[in-house]
Automatic annotation (TrEMBL):
This is Reverse transcriptase domain-containing protein. PANTHER family: REVERSE TRANSCRIPTASE DOMAIN-CONTAINING PROTEIN, TRANSPOSON TY3-I GAG-POL POLYPROTEIN. SUPFAM superfamilies: DNA/RNA polymerases. InterPro entries: DNA/RNA_pol_sf, Rev_trsase/Diguanyl_cyclase, RNA-dir_DNA_polymerase, RT_dom. It holds the Pfam family RVT_1. It comes from the Eukaryota.
């Protein structure tokens, strides 16, 4: 990529987040002021763009604000791509699939309770009632790094008995070849991408986590389950079939790269991507 001259930009607080490191800049015109004062206020626009390009980009993103997350609608459901799970065993399920909650420290206990409440508020999980039959439970781990934490389900046992989906994942080398021919590049990452997929009612009983405060069932796809990358890759390819075949859109699971040779082409491509119904 030594001969590749790249101009890039970044947008944030959205369902598709362009992730190229940039420097924050102040609004240069009314269009940017409108852009920065609205629901896209976490977006950053690179200094590599001209004032005219900055204005055109901010106008485009503002016009397509429906593709972005907001306080009223922080998480959406992608229609037509529900998550199903098929096990390679029949009932009765082995004891390995019925796990107990891991012991946690007081600090992690508080973090778990906070995160569980957040997932409940988002509609990602629901609490399983005490009279409901529970056959499969997965414990969770609280992973800490620099005083920040992540709640991770240990789905190892469930994954062992899950029938694999062998849909192919693209090779990075092919993507790099396409990128090397571009002048403008936008790299987008689906915000909480896996959580945007609804779990089918029949599969929810397999996706129950157990913690010190009860059993909860995932209504959206959790991170860490088998086939999640393959299913997401298939879904994205089906959402963008023409764009994929035309060669200017690269999709790698929940990462999407828009490549173009001119600014006009780049704006046109982004407009097509952001107007997709499922966004």
């Amino acid at each position: 990529m030594e001969n590749c001259s790249i101009t890039h930009f970044i947008l944030g607080n959205d369902y598709l987040i362009i992730q190229i490191p940039v420097i924050k800049v102040s609004p240069v015109n009314l269009q940017l002021e409108k852009f920065n004062s609205g629901q896209l206020n976490e977006a950053e626009i690179s200094l590599h763009l001209t004032d005219k390009q900055e204005s055109e980009l901010s106008s485009l993103l503002s016009d397509h604000r429906g593709a972005f997350a907001s306080e009223k609608e922080p998480l959406r459901a992608i229609i037509g791509h529900e998550v199903d799970i098929i096990l390679n065993i029949e009932r009765s399920y082995p004891p390995l699939l019925r796990r107990r909650a891991y012991p946690v420290s007081p600090k992690s206990r508080e973090a778990l309770e906070t995160h569980i409440k957040k997932l409940l508020d988002l509609g990602v999980i629901r609490k399983v009632g005490h009279i409901e039959e529970v056959e499969i439970t997965t414990p969770v781990i609280v992973a800490w790094h620099n005083e920040k934490y992540r709640m991770v389900g240990n789905f190892t046992s469930l994954n062992t008995y899950t029938v694999p989906d062998r849909y192919p994942i693209p090779k990075i080398q092919i993507a790099l070849t396409q990128i090397s021919q571009a002048f403008y590049i936008a790299t987008m990452d689906a915000l909480k991408g896996f959580h945007q997929n609804v779990v089918t009612p029949r599969a929810r009983k397999y996706l129950r986590i157990i913690v010190h405060c009860g059993v909860y069932e995932y209504l959206r796809r959790p991170f860490g389950i088998k086939n999640a990358p393959s299913h997401f890759q298939r879904m994205m390819n089906e959402i963008f079939p023409e764009e994929n075949s035309e060669g200017w859109l690269i999709i790698y699971i929940d990462d999407t790269i828009v490549c173009s040779k001119t600014w006009e082409e780049d704006i046109y491509i982004l407009s097509r991507v952001l107007t997709k119904p499922n966004l």
